[in-house]
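FW: tagging you since you asked about this chain on Friday. Here's the raw sequence from the shared folder, copied in full. Didn't touch anything.
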Amino acid sequence: MSLGFLVSVSGQIDTTLQKVDTLPGNFYGLHSVERNGTSLPEVDIKEVVIIGRPSTAKKFPFYKYQRLIYNLKKVHPYSQVVRAKLGAVNAELEKITDERERKKYLRHYEKEIFGEYEDDVRDMTITQGKLLIKLIDRETRNTSYDLIRQYRGTFSAAFWQSIARIFGTNLKEEYDPYGEDAIIEIILHEIESGNL
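HL: got it, structure written out here
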């Protein structure tokens, strides 16, 4: 009886060993981690971001999401340029003590920037312009209105704010990564990490 039992057990072992893996090539390297005096196997996995839907009755606006990704990819490099140029301007202004020389430097630098980026900014859509205003606040921790007021004066800031209002934008708009701009923040993290 015990011999028959061994034969049936060995037959079961043979069939399990011959079972073909359905996902060949997917192997995970386990490394052990010490936790509370016990060595446990662990696998590194990619981070997963889950976005909850505001309403289950509506379909996910996939087209709007794809359009937002497209616009952010187009505008995000310019916000990086603004951050870098602002840092360079501030470093140069620290060296200049005379107020007249500072104003002269700012006028010259503004003219240079307009010559370099004016065509690109004019080609942006209103939606891309609104996103750029938010991203400038994200990158510099200052609204566009505050930056213009600080470097060009209150009158100039008020003038550009009135122009922005004509086009339905607001230079005083702030970036809120944990509120209404949470999806933008998630997309930007994906762009910056190279996943999009």
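FW: The helical segments are 2-17, 62-95, 99-122, 126-140, 144-152, 154-166, 182-193.
HL: agreed, and The first helix runs from residue 2 to 17.
FW: great, closing this out.
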